[in-house]
């Protein structure tokens, strides 16, 4: 499997292959989002530390929220917040498995 690079740049061909893998046997957008969630949950190295609005948070897990949005469950002290995974700033270096977030971003049209 391709390793994440510091710049998190992946070829369109590679991301399209990941999209194909995540959406195989998915018949609608909801099932496709579920496929991405499963791949991100399986491949993303958790927990990892990120910086959100200047605060260091621990990304403890991923979840799928209403409207099939994949979110990162972030913890800071006693507080927990779900942040859309596409809005989460990635640390440098990024965690293993970040290519699945890049593929999800491409699938979403971002």
Description:
- This protein has 110 residues and is of the alpha+beta class.
- It has one domain.
- The protein is 35% helix and 25% strand.
- The protein is built from three helices and four strands, in the order ααββββα.
- It has helices at residues 12-23, 29-43, 98-108; strands at 48-52, 55-64, 70-76, 79-84.
- The protein has a four-stranded antiparallel beta sheet.
- Helix 1 packs across helix 2, helix 1 (12-23) packs across helix 3 and helix 2 packs antiparallel against helix 3 (98-108).
- The longest helix is centred in the first third of the chain and has 15 residues, at 29-43.
- The chain is globular.
- The two termini are 23 Å apart.
Question: What is the strand arrangement across the widest sheet?
Answer: 1-2-3-4
Treating each run of at least 4 consecutive H or I residues as one helix, how many helices? Answer: 3
Shape: globular
Strand content: 25-35%
What's the number of extended β-strand segments?
4
Provide keyphrases for this structure.
4 strands, 3 helices, 110 residues, alpha+beta, four-stranded antiparallel β-sheet
How are the secondary structure elements laid out?
Blueprint: H1 12-23, H2 29-43, E1 48-52, E2 55-64, E3 70-76, E4 79-84, H3 98-108
Antiparallel strand pairs: 1-2, 2-3, 3-4
Helix pairs in contact: 1-2, 1-3, 2-3
